[in-house]
Design brief:
There is one protein chain. The protein has about 190 residues and is mainly alpha-helical. It has one domain. It is about 70% helix and about 0% strand. It contains seven helices and no strands. Helix 2 packs across helix 6. Bound molecules: zinc ion.
Amino acid sequence: MLIGIGFLTTVITACLGIAMLRIVEPGPNERTLTIHGLYDEAGHLLTALVLAVGLRALQLPIPIWSVLAGGILLDVGHILIQLDFSEPITGSSRNGTHSLVIVAVVACAGFIDQRRANLWLGFALGALSHLWRDMGTGSVPLLWPISDQVWATSFTRYLLGLLAMALVMVGSGTLIAIHEHASRSHNRESA
Ligand SMILES: [Zn+2]
């Protein structure tokens, strides 16, 4: 139960942090690309942290660092665009790296590198959180290379959706932990 409160506090603090970043970030005319990048990556790390805490609450053996790394992995795409190796998809500032297909490829690496399948899952889930945030702050070509269509939602929906998902995960994990604790005490008493 106490652990559940720790998870809950981390989730709420991280979500407040995401909202704060949005409020304090200088407007598009007052910031350089680097400044925007720093705010954006901080937002991605906090988003991935919220998901990682939810996974931890569910007692899944996925290291938090792998989800955080996955949370910023796809922005290699921005570096490729800056270096002129790649072009953004029409209607978006992102290229094909920001696609569910790429996330699926990352996840599938776990079928090959089986001993580290949990890490590949962490990278893939972190990358999924990245796409969700980018849909809240812009648009992403979710189905590239099958389709060039770009997908978006609002910042409010992104943040509330993230919070709701984490609350469901932490709540579920806490109930399972309570169940296990109660079953253990029951078994001990009846032994
Ligand atoms: Zn991105």
